[in-house]
Amino acid sequence: MPRYEYKVVPAPSKGQKAKGVKTPEGRFALSVETVLNEMGAEGWEYLRAELLPSDERSGLTGSATNWRNVLVFRRAVEDDIEVFRPEEIDLPAPVHADPPVDAPAPLHADDTVAAPAPISETPQEPPFAGAARMLKDNGVEEVSEVVGMTSALRARAAGKAEKPGDGDSDSDEADKPT
Description:
Blueprint: E1 4-10, H1 24-41, E2 45-58, E3 62-76, H2 129-135, H3 151-162, H4 169-175
Antiparallel strand pairs: 1-3, 2-3
């Protein structure tokens, strides 16, 4: 994809006098034509004319919006195109799982590598699947119900059962006579 640089110049506001051009429209057209030819000689391609707002100071504290006519030109940037062209690189040879026939034998018996353990087809569910699912953090808030209890919850519940009266302060106050 070619890259471009752009140039914006003010559009002429009045016409040029020339031999054989007598009307105001003709003089104005000649001044626009002159700007287009000058920019084209420098390698700029004419794109369009725009009418754009320009906020300018008016008086000491005021501002006014003036509308300006500009001509937009572009030209391709030749120097930067080479930067974006991909380079060819040599890829490494593919790695084979089996060693070649003429590969040297291991130096020591400890140098041999054991085959990896086979991966079971069906994942083993932990005894408390709901609690195990809660322990995994995938960055999304868990909204499913907990099916089992973790060992920490079980130990905490056992501790609460041994010490009556150490529960919620609300339930303790509800048991007291007023």
